[in-house]
Prior knowledge:
Chain A is built from two helices and twelve strands. Chain A is mainly β. The N terminus of chain B is likely disordered. The longest helix of chain B has 21 residues.
Amino acid sequence: MMFSRPKLEVWKSAPASFKYDPQRRLLECSFGVLLHNTGTKAEVIRALHAHLGIPHNPSQSALFSDNDIILKQGQNEVPKVLPIEQNMSSNLTCEITVTFSDSLRGLFSQPETARELVLELVGEDNRSYPATFYFDFSEEVAKTLFDPQGPPTRFITFLGSDQNE
Amino acid sequence: MNKTKFSYSKPFLTALLSVAVVASVQPPALAEDQDLKTLVAEGLARIYGIPNTPFAAKNTKPGDASSGVEVARTKDTLSIDATPCLNNQPKRIVTFVKPYLESKISDAKCNDKRYRQIQVIQQ
């Protein structure tokens, strides 16, 4: 007997970008994901989790909540409960906006420069679909984004962070 | 002594002359581009020990950052291999044009080899 089930593939479709607004102390991160359901049943995304951290070092990680994360299709925000029908694709932009806290600042000033930004989409029956973006956070990146003498808005795109293995 | 007399049609000579003129007034940017490609190819062969490594080059815009192994540097440009551990596909070369910022980052560890890496930010 064949059971129908979703099979959601998550592809990285645009690199991770960080934008910092020093006036409001807001850090915004955005990137693209392409969702494609190759299964025989629709999948429904019911929750979003994300974290930014140092790879293989769970103690150095900042968790982002569902409220910090939005998904957009074009300019429009998509509903938090998001169905992906079978044989359908959705190219989405994920935006994470958080207040730049001291703990987050600590994460940007570690000697180890490798970073990972992980988005986890949670479907029915708690099925998990992660997408991980890898990049480096050097001293110059920190200066460019957070230097008090810098311009009003600072922006960096990590080329290649959307490379699919 | 044999002398061979060549006779060319007018359109052929016009075309030949056009090619010569185009070549002589080739924009310096194109020639520099070719020089840069040669430098990158030489850099890849020097670093990885494999001649004729295929690569795809990408330019940058302000705010773009990339990490990788330095493969070529001129007085105005810095090219890095953003895929030091990739061997079975063309390498991705990112070229930055001054002004840019660069800083050292963690080494790339590819199986038993380590490569010194930098991160570059286009200004």
